[in-house]
Write a structure and sequence with these properties.
homodimer; 188 residues; mainly beta; three-stranded antiparallel beta sheet; globular
């Protein structure tokens, strides 16, 4: 029996993405976002949604670029910290001991220790209410050698990304392999 | 060492969402999307991206509503089938034996057997290239009694949602609990 639980921002699951920017003094900063996803294949784009009050918001407005670093599960604590602290008051990189690296194609930093990194150029900004959705065209994807499988694609099992459940706010690692997309459904 | 793997629609992880619509003859239809995510808290909104050639595209353009049904991992095969077959040629509900239920607040069907359902009204449509991004304002969320925990919120461990890795296209269940968001980072 289904029960209405009201109009709320709740749909499983959300990624844990770390958005990297330089502020107006060129200090590297990161924040955690869960409101985001891939939104186009060609040109390849992803979207992230950020509140105007967040310190990173102004950096993205000014520089129109950002990175997404995908943390592996061993960095869940650092990723969560990136969503709690503000770059206005602290240097989140030096506080966590993680390393900012300037992206290759855009003026934004990524997290060296995280296995998968996406460099994005903002092509749209959509004010939706509490959040502004930035659509970033993906200029490049970088992955650690060690997480690549055949065809030079990163493997989920090796990246070990984190997901989070909206509203209930529990972090989870990746579980068992269920099958191959565009394939297992053909049995039906 | 990080290696460039090019500009492609690749960022881990994506949700597996089943989008429900009625076509022009009021036949219930569903399709699987991986390009999507929550994009605003107030008003609560999520986005899904669909190619113009998909049968569901026209239904959403015409009716400006859709549901998202979140399948549990036991339905991975059906979810994948929903992404392969076209509602133009087949009745995906009768083919899989799953049950369409008309949503309460909007004119669109959801999948009865799936534990979490979101009813959405389209408030923006953004042509990005290969895909059109539809932003849906969440009008209601419905969950099976059996997946609710305290505070009447669905638990990730009970919903057992599926995630998928872009490009590598592997489906995965949920793994171990890593901690609580907005909490575990406070230790740092």
């Amino acid at each position: 029996m289904k029960k209405s639980i009201g109009a709320q921002a709740l749909a499983f699951l959300s990624p844990v993405w770390i958005v990297g920017t330089y502020d107006h003094e060129a200090k590297p900063n990161v924040m955690a976002v869960a409101w985001g996803g891939i939104c186009c294949s060609a040109p390849p784009c992803l979207s992230i949604s950020i509140q105007k009050v967040r310190y990173s918001y102004q950096s993205i407005i000014e520089r129109k670029v950002f990175t997404v670093s995908v943390p592996s599960e061993e960095y869940a604590k650092e990723a969560d910290y990136f969503g709690i602290a503000s770059g206005k008051n602290v240097d989140k990189f030096s506080h966590t001991g993680l390393t900012p690296v300037r992206a290759e194609l855009i003026e934004a930093p990524y997290v060296k220790e995280f296995p998968l990194v996406i460099e994005c150029k903002v092509i749209q900004a959509l004010d939706l209410g509490s959040h502004t959705q930035f659509i970033g065209q993906i200029m490049d994807v970088k992955a650690e050698d060690s997480v690549l499988g055949e065809n030079e694609l990163p493997l989920v099992e090796k990246v070990k990304p984190i997901v989070v459940g909206a509203k209930i706010w529990t972090y989870h690692g990746i579980g068992k392999y269920l099958g191959q997309a565009f394939s297992m459904g053909r049995e039906l």
